[in-house]
Amino acid sequence: MAIAPITGKLRKRFWLDVGSALALGISGGYAYWYGYHLKALERQENYYVKLEKEKARST
Description:
Blueprint: H1 9-58
């Protein structure tokens, strides 16, 4: 008794996997960029502005 071939399932699953991977990757990138990176950059900039102000006051 032979097993019937499964046709078309792999192709459909492949595109679902590719689409899911792209969606999750892009969502993760946005979450990192706006959730962490920009806030860290703002903290860094504020620190350097504070240093410049202290340097200007002391001279």
